Amino acid sequence: MRTARVAYAGAVHTATPHAGGLLLTDGRVVAEDSVVWLPPFDVGTVIVLGLNYADHVKELAKELTVTSKDEPLAFFKGPGAVVGHLAQTRRPADATYMHYECELAVVIGKSARNVHAADAMAHVAGYTVANDYAVRDYLENWYRPNLRVKNRDTCTVLGPWLVDADEVADPHALALSTRVNGEVTQRGSTANMVNDIPTLIEYLSSFMTLNPGDVILTGTPDGVVNVNEGDVVVCEIEGIGSLSNTIVGDSVFGR
C-alpha cells in the first residue's frame, strides 16, 4: 500500500492513489493539483547519512579524509527543514553552489534499541523519496557537514508516498535518478550503499532508540550539480515514487 498526507479544504487527510487523482479517507476523490502535499507520515527524528555511496565518495575524493574503516557519518535535522512534494526550497542569494541529493528514506515503524542487523528490517514501516539539499559554500570542511549546510528551512523534501515495506522486495536494488528541468543529471542504485539498511539500524540503535516515524536518509550517489532559482528538480526511485519541487529565491521568503 502507498499513502500520502495532504491538506485539502482546511483539513489534513490521508490519501491513496486513484484513477481520478487522490482518494481521501472520507471517500472524496480530488485532483492531485488541488491539494497541498505534506510529508507522507508524521515525521519524528530525521537522521541523515553522509558519504554512504561509494561513487559519491569517489566523486569527492580530493576533498575527503574518509576511509572504509570510519563509522557511518550521521547527523540530525530539525522539523523546519522538512517539506512535502511540490514544495518550494529556498536558495540563499549568497550561495554559489547548492545541490540536490536524491535519497531513499527509510521510515521506522517499530521502536528499535540494540537491534542486530539480522533483525533490523522488521523495524521498518516503509520507504519514501527524499531530496536533501546542501549549500556547499557553507561547509567548514568537505567531510563534516555543519548546520548551515544541511539543516536549512525547506531543504529536505519528502514524499510523495509512503510505500509499505512489504511491497518493496529488495530496497538495496532500486534505481535512483534526478532530473533538473527535465534533464537527467544523476543516476545510481541503492545497491551501491556503503552501509546497508540493516547495518545502519544496528549502528544507530546501539546508542539511541529509534521510534516510529523516525526516518533515515541513506545517502546519495554521485552526479550532484548546482541548481538555481526557477529550477524544477525531480528525484525518482524505482517502485517508490517521483518527488518534485522548485527552487526559489530569498524574496519568496521575505528575505
UniProtKB/TrEMBL annotation:
Source taxon at top rank: Bacteria
InterPro entries linked to this entry: Fumarylacetoacetase-like_C, Fumarylacetoacetase_C_sf, HPA_isomer/decarb_C
Domain Fumarylacetoacetase-like C-terminal span(s) in chain numbering: 46-248
UniProt keyword annotations, A-Z: Hydrolase, Isomerase, Metal-binding
Pfam families: FAA_hydrolase
Keyword Hydrolase: yes
Cofactor(s) it depends on: Mg(2+)
One GO molecular-function entry: 5-oxopent-3-ene-1,2,5-tricarboxylate decarboxylase activity
GO biological process, one term: 4-hydroxyphenylacetate catabolic process
Cross-referenced NCBIfam families: HpaG-C-term
Protein family membership: Belongs to the FAH family.
Protein name: Homoprotocatechuate catabolism bifunctional isomerase/decarboxylase
Organism: Achromobacter kerstersii
Gene: hpcE_2
